[in-house]
């Protein structure tokens, strides 16, 4: 069965091209609305944003899951599309939940967010897995002919690039139109473009439209792919000459300069990745009637030989850094990339020297490396091989065995760069039997900024905080001087959304405390006996309160009121009540 026959069968099963178009557009619209609702929850600090792990799961599944529908619809039967989408969304949700749950964050002070690595590697894993699974579903075999993998993957790559470009061009035109309207005194379009309720759903819908438009022009997409592959394949000769020259020069220049860059592993792995991609643009599906010119065939063999030494260099440099400074999340991810690179290097080296069909072992290498890539990404972004957890364990082990002294240990890594695993380890170190370790750990635990932060960087962060006083009042100068201690204001009081402050005596001790109101909370600060401003409490703003109304009310004044719930004495310790606010009560009613 040809690819086109499968394509047509899928379309008939979905009710023809009209049904396919409606399905894709509906998917894009639903995705856009769902993402907007998640944005509202994060912005308002309401459920599900109050449950960080759940929010991370929903965000990643909603952001990437519908793309499976867009890509698979029309190519496989509807039941298979549904099952594959559910499976992909479930895996994405678990990865998103883990990514947010491992972070140290206070959901009452900042919305949960997905880190960049999970967004990048999650997209890569989904793309690779999709183009391994869909051909298998079509052919009803676990492993299909390499030409099937090539056809669907590279066609989808071109579609993705065109769809992203179409979406970007659409927004450029909208902003151009908004500028034209603004010139004649009409700013409604510019205002609308800045509203999340418009921009998020429209972006998702536009992308879905682009996928549909590129899909119905199948012949055009294949033509664009052919031209793109032809152009890229000739760049292989350029990168091959450059890499060969680089490797040939190393015996004369030595490796010291390479290691001193502190980015040698990333650079050489990037060069290896470029070679791998360009080799495949020349090899394409490997059919005898599709062989490239002789110059490219020789270039492919030469380039395939160069990948292995690049990977060896990457592993060597990485091993040196790990031996000197231990594991970090970045080094673990680099090691995972090097592992996949080693598979490519060995397979392509074998293909270059194996007699018989030109570079035929490359096909099996690509499939094996693709499966390995997906498995490695799933392991890295799950509890199985969480880079932060592994790095923290290794760093603590280095400290305990004396590979690094207590004075030279990187406590800031535990405090700022390794999430909950690092925070827990730092807490344990504060109780260390070694007095110096415990002292330095306690000092790191109280730091707002990394110890290596320059004065200019601290000043830039502090300068980003904006607090305006209520009418007739001023913000205490000593409070502004101590802003570096108030890290909870960094992402709340900004140039775009400045906070409002008011002086008030909260506890009747005759000293003026300070209220600072953000979008959803009012934080109370007071002076301690040492003259330091410290956070006293946080007040939750009712969910139905508009920000401008809150500002107006706080500007008029605020008074302290008796607590609605008494404190409790448990085991001789006073426990203060923190009433819950249910922002969804009105909606359920």
Describe the structure.
The protein starts with a helix and ends with a helix. The strands form two sheets. Strands 1-2-3-4-5 form a five-stranded mixed sheet, with helices on one face. A two-stranded antiparallel sheet has the order 6-7. The radius of gyration is 29 Å and the shape is globular. Mean pLDDT is 87; it is low at 1-16 and 581-589. A hairpin with a 2-residue loop joins strand 6 (568-570) and strand 7. The protein is 65% helix and 6% strand. The longest helix has 38 residues, at 146-183. It has four domains: 3-216, no CATH class; 221-385, no CATH class; 387-445, no CATH class; 460-588, no CATH class. Helix 6 (146-183) packs across helix 9 (218-253). With 589 residues, it is mainly alpha-helical. The chain has helices spanning 3-13, 16-44, 52-72, 78-101, 116-139, 146-183, 188-193, 196-216, 218-253, 256-260, 264-283, 294-325, 329-353, 361-380, 387-400, 411-416, 419-429, 435-445, 455-463, 477-481, 547-556, 585-588, and strands spanning 467-469, 499-504, 513-517, 521-527, 533-540, 568-570, 573-575.
């Amino acid at each position: 069965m040809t690819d086109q026959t499968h394509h047509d069968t899928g379309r008939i099963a979905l009710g023809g091209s009209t049904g396919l178009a409606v399905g894709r557009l509906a998917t894009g619209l639903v995705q856009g609305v769902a993402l907007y609702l998640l944005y509202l929850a994060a912005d308002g600090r309401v459920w599900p944003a109050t449950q960080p792990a759940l929010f991370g799961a929903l965000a990643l599944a909603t952001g990437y899951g519908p793309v499976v529908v867009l890509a698979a619809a029309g190519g496989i039967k509807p039941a298979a599309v549904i099952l594959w989408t559910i499976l992909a969304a479930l895996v994405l949700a678990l990865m998103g939940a883990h990514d947010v749950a491992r972070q140290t964050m206070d959901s009452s002070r900042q919305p949960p967010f997905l880190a960049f690595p999970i967004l990048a590697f999650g997209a890569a894993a989904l793309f690779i897995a999709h183009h391994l699974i869909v051909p298998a579903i079509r052919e009803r075999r676990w492993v299909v002919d390499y030409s099937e993998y090539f056809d669907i993957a590279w066609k989808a790559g071109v579609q993705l690039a065109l769809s992203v470009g179409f979406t970007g061009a659409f927004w450029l035109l909208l902003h151009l139109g908004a500028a034209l309207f603004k010139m004649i005194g009409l700013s409604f379009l510019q205002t609308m473009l800045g509203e999340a309720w418009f921009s998020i759903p429209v972006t998702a819908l536009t992308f879905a439209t682009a996928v549909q438009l590129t899909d119905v022009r199948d012949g055009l997409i294949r033509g664009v792919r052919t031209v793109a592959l032809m152009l890229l394949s000739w760049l292989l000769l350029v990168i091959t000459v450059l890499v060969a020259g680089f490797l040939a020069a190393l015996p004369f220049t030595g490796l010291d300069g390479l290691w001193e860059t502190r980015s040698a592993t990333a650079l050489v792995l990037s060069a290896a990745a470029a070679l791998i991609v360009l080799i495949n643009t020349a090899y394409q599906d490997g059919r005898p009637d599709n062989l490239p010119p002789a110059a490219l065939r020789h270039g492919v063999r030469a380039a395939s030989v160069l990948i292995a030494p690049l990977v060896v260099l990457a592993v060597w440099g990485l091993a040196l850094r790990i031996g000197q400074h231990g594991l970090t999340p970045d080094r673990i991810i680099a090691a995972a990339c090097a592992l996949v690179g080693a598979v490519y290097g060995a397979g392509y080296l074998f293909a270059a020297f194996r007699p018989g069909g030109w570079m035929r072992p490359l096909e099996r290498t690509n499939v094996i490396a693709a499966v390995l890539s997906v498995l490695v990404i799933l392991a890295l972004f799950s509890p199985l091989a969480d880079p932060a957890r592994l790095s923290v364990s290794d760093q603590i082990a280095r400290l305990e065995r004396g590979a690094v002294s207590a004075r030279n240990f990187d406590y800031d890594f535990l405090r700022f760069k390794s999430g909950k695993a690092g925070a827990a380890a730092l807490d344990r170190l504060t109780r260390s039997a070694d007095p110096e370790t415990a002292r330095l750990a306690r000092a790191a635990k109280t730091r707002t900024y990394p110890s290596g932060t320059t004065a200019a960087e601290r000043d830039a962060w502090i300068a980003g905080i904006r607090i305006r006083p209520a009418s007739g009042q001023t913000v205490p100068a000593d409070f502004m001087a101590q802003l570096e201690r108030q890290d909870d204001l960094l992402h709340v009081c900004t140039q775009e959304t400045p906070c409002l402050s008011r002086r008030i005596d909260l506890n009747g001790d005759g000293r003026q405390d300070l209220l600072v109101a953000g979008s959803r909370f009012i934080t109370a600060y007071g002076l301690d006996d040492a003259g330091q401003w410290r956070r006293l409490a946080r007040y939750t703003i009712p969910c139905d309160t508009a920000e401008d109304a809150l500002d107006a009310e706080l500007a008029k004044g605020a008074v302290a009121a008796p607590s609605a719930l008494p404190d409790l004495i448990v085991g001789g310790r006073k426990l203060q009540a923190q009433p819950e606010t249910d922002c969804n009560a009105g909606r359920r009613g």
